Amino acid sequence: MAGALSDRSGRRNPWILGGGLAAVPAMFLLGLADTILLITIAWCLGQAVMNVYQAAVTSVVPDRVPMDARGRASAAVGLGLPFGSTLGALIGAAYSEDYRTGYLVLGALVAGAAVLFTACGREQRLPARAPMPVREQLAAFTSALRDHDFRWAFIGRALLVLGYFAVSGYQLYVLQDHTVLPDGMKPEAAVAVLMPLTSVAMVVSTVLGGYLSDRFDRRKLFVGTSALLSAVALVIPALSASWPAMLSFAVVNGLAFGCYMAVDTALVTMVLPKAEDAARDMGVLNIANAGPQIIAPFVASVVVSFSGGYTALFVVAAVLAVAGALAVKPIRSVR
Questions:
Q1: What sign for the dihedral angle of Cα 130, 57, 211, 254?
Q2: Among candidates 160, 35, 54, 154, which has minimal Cα distance to 114?
């Protein structure tokens, strides 16, 4: 909805700034919540306002970056994932005993980023568009998915993200119940080792993937190869429960996911059905990010419960990654 309204207004910065600033009261409320109901309301509010920010900011690349630089631009955007997840984990650990302040710090970071971006980034205003009847607005949300290339890009992203988060969301439990850790190492300490490894690998592959995809003008090749590499990474802990196997998985999976997200984001900006609907359609794509993350824990719990272990979870996630790789093959308008 925020993407569609941003398109109609022809503006990005007000939505980025508004969503970013609204994160502060949302996180303040989350810190005060002391019942399940209030936590649920505050968490949903926080997700909503930050996705207003997200929908508008993701449209900046197709709005302002030429086609031959989309890979590098998407790589720069993709660097937010490893840096942000690492910084978020550090803030979470630092404020584990004072979580109200921790929530405010996170909200302030989002608000500060929004202020900095809108102050420094020159906005290219697009022509405002006339309002449409409600029925046409609702139909417009599905119009992007009726486009052949965008639909396959959406499916591929959803499958890969589902497989990735089905495993990463259960990482602590995998280390507790599946991996044979070195003597004296606790699962929490193991997570602290794996996260930087994955983040560094992700940074390297994000930068290289974005640069090389521009250099060779090939997007599908890098997206498909990185998705297949993710499947290879997931097979490693399925074959061995050793600590070295888990270390290898962390590095290879980081390399795969970093390159995938950087180049796939560039690919998606090239298959948008209409440039004037960029924010709305990138918002639709965000469902392929957020939706699988919502259902991934349920999928993982079912697989682990029925199989009695985590080996099957790795195998299922690897199959999803292969399916995600195959989903880019039908895309016609991008090499």
A1: negative
A2: 54
Buried b (16+ CB within 10 A) or exposed e, 15-29: bbbbbbbbbbbbbeb
Task: Measure the CA–CA gap between 114 and 129, rounded to whole angstroms.
Answer: 25
What is the sign, positive or negative, of the torsion defined by CA atoms of 116, 120, 124, 128?
positive
- Look at the alpha carbons of 66, 70, 72, 74 in this order and tell me if their dihedral is positive or negative: positive
Q: Summarize pLDDT for 134-192 with one digit per residue, the tens.
A: 676 667 667 778 889 999 999 999 999 999 999 988 888 899 999 999 998 998 888 88
Alpha helices in the chain (DSSP H): 2-9, 13-32, 36-58, 60-64, 70-78, 80-94, 99-120, 134-146, 148-168, 171-177, 187-216, 220-239, 243-270, 278-307, 311-327
Closest CA to 103 of 26, 35, 48, 34: 26
Residue 180 main-chain phi, psi, to 5 deg:
-90, 100
User: Which two three-digit tokens encode residue 280?
Assistant: 């709305």
CB atoms inside a 10 Å sphere around CB 130: 5
Count of Cβ atoms closer than 10 Å to residue 133 Cβ: 8
257 CB-near residues (< 8 Å, 6+ apart): 164, 202, 205, 226, 230
Q: How many CB atoms lie within 10 A of CB 84?
A: 13
- 24-60 confidence digits (pLDDT tens): 999 999 999 989 999 999 989 998 998 888 888 888 8
Which residue in 117, 84, 59 sits closest to 283, CA to CA? 59
At which residue do the structure tokens 């890969």 appear? 160
Total residues belonging to the chain: 335
Q: Is 119 left (phi over 0), alpha (psi -120 to 50) or beta?
A: alpha
Angle at which helices 70-78 and 187-216 cross, to 10°: 170
Alpha-helix residue ranges (DSSP H) falling in 59-186 = 60-64, 70-78, 80-94, 99-120, 134-146, 148-168, 171-177
Residue with tokens 């900095």: 116
Look at residues 328, 312, 308 and name the one whose alpha carbon lies nearest to residue 260.
Answer: 328
* Domains, the chain, ordered by start: 2-66+81-120 (no CATH), 144-327 (1.20.1250.20)
